[in-house]
């Protein structure tokens, strides 16, 4: 039997959940998906999975994991923190043979570059725990791993902030950092009733494609500038910048930024110019 046939022959997901007495743990930000049609849609949003290493974080009882294996994934690694869910996933490990490796650990402390095969790219596909989703995203934005794309599920409010444009209420540090590092594509929204237990808000699936030729040395300075300025988003940038430099007027002029503007209207490329002017010795043209 092929991997796909073995996966399809497994007991229904609900039976696995009942057999292992699984329930979503709010402390871990868990919301399980039971609908395999929906998880199949998430897997398809990630594109061709047959030639890359695929990493899933927080697989839970394995609904998305099944969809990834049914989508032709040949090299799947799942990182699961919850020991209860690890036990429920062993049948999938057996069905997938060498195509699926399960790691019991914390994705926040996991080095994703260690799982990527020689010459391969990494795709991350995950229904992220609500309580650590944004933290994980910032970790991956800075990662040195050869990430080709990240197809991720968040609360809709998080995705709205990620794709926000300058001048909008949602535009902030998350939008600048995500859009500086990646091309960001909103795929589709998911209603609360698709999850067990249903969250109080809608969710969204988004795919981020890391942009080539980014000077990653700039990342930390960009994050510091964004954090400082957006913590005072209603103040003029000339005022907020005083926390970083005493030479703000000259620096803003050199970066081509109006000193009376507020951070919420400044485009992503202007933030990069600002960082380069702030630290000319680090980022010489």
Structure description:
By secondary structure, this protein is of the alpha/beta class. The strands form two sheets. A seven-stranded mixed sheet has the order 4-3-2-5-6-9-7, sandwiched between helices. A two-stranded antiparallel sheet has the order 1-8. The protein has two domains: 3-214, Vaccinia Virus protein VP39 (Rossmann fold, 3-Layer(aba) Sandwich); 217-278, rRNA adenine dimethylase, C-terminal domain (Helicase, Ruva Protein, domain 3, Orthogonal Bundle), CATH 1.10.8. The chain is built from 13 helices and nine strands. The protein starts with a helix and ends in a 7-residue tail after the last helix. α12 (248-255) packs across α13. The chain has helices at 3-8, 13-19, 36-45, 63-70, 83-88, 90-96, 133-141, 156-162, 173-181, 219-230, 237-240, 248-255, 268-278, and strands at residues 32-33, 53-57, 76-80, 100-104, 122-127, 147-155, 182-190, 195-196, 203-210. The radius of gyration is 21 Å and the shape is elongated.
A few lines on this structure:
By secondary structure, the chain is of the alpha/beta class. It is built from 13 helices and 9 strands. The protein is elongated and about 70 Å long.
Notable features of this structure?
Rossmann fold; Helicase, Ruva Protein, domain 3; alpha/beta; 36% helix; seven-stranded mixed beta sheet
Write down the CATH class of the largest domain: Alpha Beta
Distance between the termini: 57 Å
Class of secondary structure makeup: alpha/beta
Q: Report the CATH topology name of the largest domain.
A: Rossmann fold
What is the number of independent domains? 2
Outline the biggest β-sheet.
7 strands, mixed
Q: Helix share of residues?
A: 25-40%
Number of strands: 9
Our Rg estimate from Cα atoms comes to 21 Å
Net shape: elongated
Mean pLDDT over the residues: 93
CATH H-tier superfamily of the largest domain: Vaccinia Virus protein VP39
């Amino acid at each position: 039997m092929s991997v796909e046939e073995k996966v399809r022959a497994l007991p229904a997901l609900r039976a696995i959940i009942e057999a292992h007495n699984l329930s979503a743990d709010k402390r871990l930000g868990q919301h399980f998906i039971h609908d395999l049609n929906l998880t199949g849609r998430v897997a398809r949003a990630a594109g061709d999975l047959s030639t890359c290493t695929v990493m899933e974080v927080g697989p839970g009882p394995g609904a998305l994991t099944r969809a990834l294996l049914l989508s032709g994934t040949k090299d799947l690694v799942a990182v699961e923190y919850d020991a209860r869910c690890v036990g429920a996933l062993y049948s999938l490990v057996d069905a997938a043979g060498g195509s699926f490796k399960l790691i019991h650990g914390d994705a926040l402390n996991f080095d994703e570059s260690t799982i990527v095969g020689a010459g391969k790219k990494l795709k991350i596909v995950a229904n992220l725990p609500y309580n650590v989703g944004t933290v994980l995203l910032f970790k991956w934005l800075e990662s040195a791993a050869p990430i080709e794309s990240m197809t991720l599920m968040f609360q809709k409010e998080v995705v709205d902030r990620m794709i926000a444009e300058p001048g909008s209420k949602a535009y902030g540090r998350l939008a600048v950092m995500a859009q500086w590092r990646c091309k960001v594509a909103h795929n589709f929204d998911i209603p609360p009733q698709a999850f067990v237990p249903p969250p109080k808000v809608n969710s969204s699936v988004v795919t981020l494609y890391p942009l080539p030729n980014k000077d990653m040395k700039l990342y930390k300075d960009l994050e510091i500038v964004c954090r400082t300025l957006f913590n005072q988003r209603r103040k003029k940038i000339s005022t907020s910048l005083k926390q970083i430099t005493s030479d703000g007027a000259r620096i803003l002029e050199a970066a081509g930024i109006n000193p009376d503007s507020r951070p919420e209207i400044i485009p992503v490329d202007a933030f990069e110019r600002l960082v380069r002017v702030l630290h000319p010795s680090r980022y010489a043209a």
